[in-house]
Amino acid sequence: VQLQACGGGLVQAGGSLRLSCTASGRTFDTWAMGWFRQAPGKERELVAAISSGESTFYGDSMKGRCTISRDNTPNTTYLQMNSLKLEDTAVYYCAAARYRYSSPWLNSHDYTYWGQGTQVTVSS
Questions:
Q1: Hey, which end of the chain has fewer CB within 10 Å, N or C?
Q2: Closest C-alpha to 50, from 30, 33, 28, 75
Q3: Judging by DSSP bridges, how do beta strands 2-6 and 17-24 pair with one another?
């Protein structure tokens, strides 16, 4: 599975961005997906995850300000981010984990495939 993330960029605080992650290779709808982020000097953290059956989980950092979704037709998962803050500045990664219908995978170690990352910079 190859994952291609895009949609990052420079945005002012309070603005919005939508990240996309397109998968190629093995059947996309069997994978559970996640978005992680890593800021300089900090550990990688889970932003949001979605199971193969579209159950979702949101990490505390962006809960209430982001929405994860997936569209199996173009093999794409999305992360809509709103009300962005300075502290949301990070490299955002999408990742794919093995099939699980009922609940998302929450640990980065559960994810097998990773995209290359897309930079999100929030300015004041």
A1: C
A2: 33
A3: antiparallel
Round to whole Å and give the CA distance between 92 and 5: 8
Cβ neighbours around 121 below 10 Å, total: 14
Instruction: Provide the pLDDT for residue 25.
Output: 78
Q: Kindly give the residue spans of alpha helices, DSSP state H, lying in the chain.
A: none
Q: Is the dihedral of CA 71, 74, 79, 82 positive or negative?
A: negative
Q: Report, as an integer, the average pLDDT of 41-55.
A: 96
What pLDDT shows up at residue 67?
Answer: 98
Residues 22-44: tens digit of each pLDDT: 998 777 667 899 999 999 999 99
Picking from 90, 70, 68, 72, the residue whose alpha carbon sits closest to that of residue 81 is 68
Contacts of 43 (CB under 8 A, 6+ apart): none
| Structure tokens that stand for 59 in this block | 């990490």
